């Protein structure tokens, strides 16, 4: 079964499974089609995290982009040392990191691939050559984007000669991407990282007319994916595993669940009239506490390791103390805790995150499972197109400012460093048997943490099926206001939360949750796949 953000991509992955491909094989075919049909979200020019369960062990592959060797903490500052306006830093070459997704997929394929590498490229090559129908979401995002048309290559691809964006259903061909994919199908990831394509990326980044960047072909050639130990913790009768730093996703989700296990949120499932205010109160307070720690402590562990190890932030006594800070009224803004091992002051990081990104969940015939979240960061990344794909703007996930009155920001820019992420590909297992229960994840920048935690609470605490849990209105707090999904919540809920001292904001919160869950029916175990109705996700499986 494949659950992905676009029907063409789910179909490509499913056909690979039908031909005997492994979950990793299917993830590769799915990703390559997503890069074509959902270019706003992910692609060859971006990065990803992939969690793989092979029935015994769990591996966390880190394909996060890296900062160029020449970059330093001043990357996003103006001549006077002030942080640039966010988009001024983002659009152009400056924000582009060395792409990671293809090297990471190659590593996973070497270890878990079953079909030949080149075969996995066929579906995307055929679609790039023959064209695919522009989806409603792609048409809308292109139409509304003020920056994409400023890049001549993107303008020629995404718009007609008069400068109009293509309508829904227009058959869009991408021969440049077909050529790139053919080269990588033949020559492996080296064809991308060490040849013509890396040189083309450097030229594009360097030559931007008013915001050139520091990324060079040598940075791309030097890129290395990493295998990391998944971050796992127990929650009631389950074991929840997520991506460790440089993502903050796994840690923040685990902290929220651990904090919530000290509360009676299980007794507050959604009611006939919508979400129970007490559930939203507890969940958003847990979010405040988790985001305070995330903002302060999480960054690339090679550059800014937690003094006591990441485990100090998951210590049960520490989290019990954090949970005790939740009272009947909202705490407003939480302060970061001081876990074991932290002595010096750390400064909080600031980095806004914006719409795009994609999540893929896959289970193959042998029960191997994948959870992969993949991104070019903001919609259409840096808006720089080369060789048929878009370059990421992942470096804007670093903090623009590198210090404040408390000290240095852990997530400041440094050469060769990975920017902090919120992506939270997640797997759930039975605690006692180790049996696989669920694979899920979502796009949404730092909202991802709340989307994934909400879905886990929905399924594990409120016993909803995965689709119903995904469909619940989104809610939570990123340690600012309490954010509720606009148009999905009642006035009564808003009023009840205000009485508990919550500062309420209604916002879009367009999650793109996808997941696969094992369910038990009379005939035995079955797979239940779910895709978020807020985007264009679809599930294909047997
Ligand atoms: O790694 C991250 O957390 C972000 N670059 C992801 C961006 C994202 O999900 C935008 N979403 N809608």
TrEMBL record:
Active site: 357 (nucleophile)
Modification comment: Cleaved by autocatalysis into a large and a small subunit.
Organism superkingdom: Bacteria
GO biological process: one example: glutathione catabolic process
GO molecular function: glutathione hydrolase activity; leukotriene C4 gamma-glutamyl transferase activity
Keywords: Acyltransferase, Glutathione biosynthesis, Hydrolase, Transferase, Zymogen
Residues reported in the UniProt entry to bind L-glutamate: 64, 397, 421-422, 445
Pfam families hit by this protein: G_glu_transpept (PF01019)
Biological pathway: Sulfur metabolism; glutathione metabolism
EC number of this enzyme: 2.3.2.2, 3.4.19.13
Reactions catalysed according to its record: glutathione + H2O = L-cysteinylglycine + L-glutamate; an S-substituted glutathione + H2O = an S-substituted L-cysteinylglycine + L-glutamate; an N-terminal (5-L-glutamyl)-[peptide] + an alpha-amino acid = 5-L-glutamyl amino acid + an N-terminal L-alpha-aminoacyl-[peptide]
Known partners and oligomeric status: This enzyme consists of two polypeptide chains, which are synthesized in precursor form from a single polypeptide.
Protein family: Belongs to the gamma-glutamyltransferase family.
The protein, known as: Glutathione hydrolase proenzyme
The organism of origin for this protein: Noviherbaspirillum pedocola
Gene: ggt
């Amino acid at each position: 079964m494949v659950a992905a953000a676009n029907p063409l991509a789910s179909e490509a992955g499913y056909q690979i499974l039908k031909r005997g491909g492994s979950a990793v094989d299917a993830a590769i075919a799915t990703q390559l089609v997503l890069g074509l049909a959902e270019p706003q979200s992910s692609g060859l020019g971006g990065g990803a995290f992939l969690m793989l369960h092979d029935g015994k062990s769990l591996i966390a592959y880190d394909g996060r982009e890296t900062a160029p060797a020449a970059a330093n903490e001043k990357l996003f500052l103006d001549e006077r040392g002030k942080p640039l306006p966010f988009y001024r830093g983002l659009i152009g070459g400056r924000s582009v990191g060395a792409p990671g997704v293809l090297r990471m997929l190659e590593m996973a394929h070497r270890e878990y691939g079953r079909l030949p590498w080149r075969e996995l490229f066929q579906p995307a090559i055929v679609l790039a050559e023959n064209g695919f129908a522009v989806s409603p979401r792609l048409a809308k995002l292109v139409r509304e984007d003020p920056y994409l048309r400023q890049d001549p290559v993107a303008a020629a691809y995404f718009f007609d000669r008069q400068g109009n964006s293509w309508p829904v259903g227009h058959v869009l061909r991408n021969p440049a991407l077909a050529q790139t994919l053919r080269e990588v199908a033949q020559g492996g990831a080296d064809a991308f990282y060490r040849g013509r394509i890396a040189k083309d990326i450097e030229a594009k980044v360097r030559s931007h007319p008013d915001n050139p960047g520091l990324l060079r072909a040598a940075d791309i050639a030097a890129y290395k994916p990493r295998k990391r130990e998944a971050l796992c913790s127990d929650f009631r009768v389950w074991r929840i595993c997520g991506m460790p730093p440089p993502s903050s996703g796994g840690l923040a989700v685990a902290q929220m669940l651990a904090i919530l296990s000290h509360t009676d949120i299980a007794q507050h499932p959604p009611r006939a009239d919508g979400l129970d205010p007490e559930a939203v109160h507890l969940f958003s307070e847990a979010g405040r506490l988790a985001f305070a720690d995330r903002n302060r402590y999480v960054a690339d562990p090679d550059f800014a390791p937690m003094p006591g190890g990441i485990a100090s932030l998951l210590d049960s006594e520490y989290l019990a103390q954090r949970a005790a800070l939740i009272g009947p009224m909202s705490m407003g803004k939480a302060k970061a805790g001081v876990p074991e091992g932290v002595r010096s002051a750390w400064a909080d990081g600031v980095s806004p995150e914006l719409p795009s990104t994609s999540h893929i969940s896959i289970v193959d015939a042998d029960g191997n499972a994948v959870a992969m979240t993949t991104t070019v960061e903001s919609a259409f990344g840096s808006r720089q197109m080369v060789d048929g794909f878009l370059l990421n703007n992942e470096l804007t996930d670093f903090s623009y400012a590198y210090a404040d009155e408390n000290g240095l920001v852990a997530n400041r820019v440094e050469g060769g460093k990975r920017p902090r992420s919120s992506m939270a590909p997640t797997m759930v297992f039975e605690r006692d048997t180790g049996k696989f229960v669920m694979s899920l994840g979502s796009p949404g920048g730092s909202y991802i943490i709340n989307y994934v935690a909400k879905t886990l609470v929905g399924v594990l605490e409120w016993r909803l099926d995965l689709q119903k849990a995904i469909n619940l209105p989104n809610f939570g707090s990123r340690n600012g206001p309490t954010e509720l999904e606009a148009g999905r919540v009642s006035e009564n809920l808003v009023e009840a939360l205000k009485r508990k001292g919550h500062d309420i904001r209604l916002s879009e919160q367009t999650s793109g949750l996808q997941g696969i869950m094992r369910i038990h029916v009379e005939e035995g175990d079955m797979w239940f796949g779910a895709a978020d109705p807020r985007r264009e996700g679809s599930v294909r499986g047997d």
